[in-house]
């Protein structure tokens, strides 16, 4: 693996994983701080931009083509188009519409750091529409901005 040394405030560290797997990490300074990184090759990601709010929404899911009864993991990342960093303090709604255009899942949330996750188990096959609607930015209400994605679910 690799050693990042000390990462300073607002700093970052990059590492390229060459193999699928789960990799553990920890802090040399704070040994109780531990975590893991799950590296997968069955993933899909789409980024949509909306210049009216200068925020892009990236939706990532795995598996890339979900199957009925299988849990699909989502990651939602809000990106400030001016800085290309995570956009903090976004109020948003994450929902999933069925092939019949009925909402089967919906959560209204606030993202403090610009990265959120969700999980959903599809119960039928077809083309579903995950939707991320932004309605406040930096604690200020805005006219709702909707980003609609498409996911094919197999039987």
Sheet with the most strands?
5 strands, antiparallel
**Number of beta strands:** 12
Q: Any idea what the CATH superfamily is called? A: Macroglobulin (MG2) domain
What's the gyration radius in Å?
Answer: 17 Å
Strand content: over 45%
Measure the end-to-end span: 39 Å
CATH topology: Immunoglobulin-like
How much is the average pLDDT? 93
| Structure annotation, total helices | 0
The domain count comes to 1
| CATH class call | Mainly Beta
How would you describe this structure to a colleague?
The chain is mainly β. It has one domain: Immunoglobulin-like (Sandwich). The chain is built from no helices and 12 strands. The strands form 3 sheets. Strands 3, 4, 5, 6 and 9 form a 5-stranded antiparallel sheet that branches. Strand 7 and strand 8 form a beta hairpin. The mean pLDDT is 93.
């Amino acid at each position: 693996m690799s050693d990042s040394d000390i990462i300073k405030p607002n700093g970052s560290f990059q590492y390229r994983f060459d193999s699928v797997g789960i990799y553990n990490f920890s802090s040399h300074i704070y040994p109780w701080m531990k975590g893991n990184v799950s590296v997968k090759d069955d993933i899909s990601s789409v980024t949509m931009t909306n210049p009216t709010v200068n925020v892009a929404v990236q939706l990532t899911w795995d598996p890339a083509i979900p199957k009925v009864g299988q849990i699909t993991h989502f990651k939602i990342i809000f990106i400030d188009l001016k800085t290309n960093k995570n956009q903090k303090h976004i109020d948003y709604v994450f929902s999933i519409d069925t092939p019949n255009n009925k909402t089967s899942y919906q959560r209204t949330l606030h993202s403090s750091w610009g990265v959120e996750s969700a999980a959903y188990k599809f119960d039928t096959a077809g083309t579903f529409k995950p939707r991320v609607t932004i309605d406040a930015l930096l604690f200020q209400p805005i006219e709702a901005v909707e980003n609609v994605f498409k996911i094919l679910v197999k039987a």
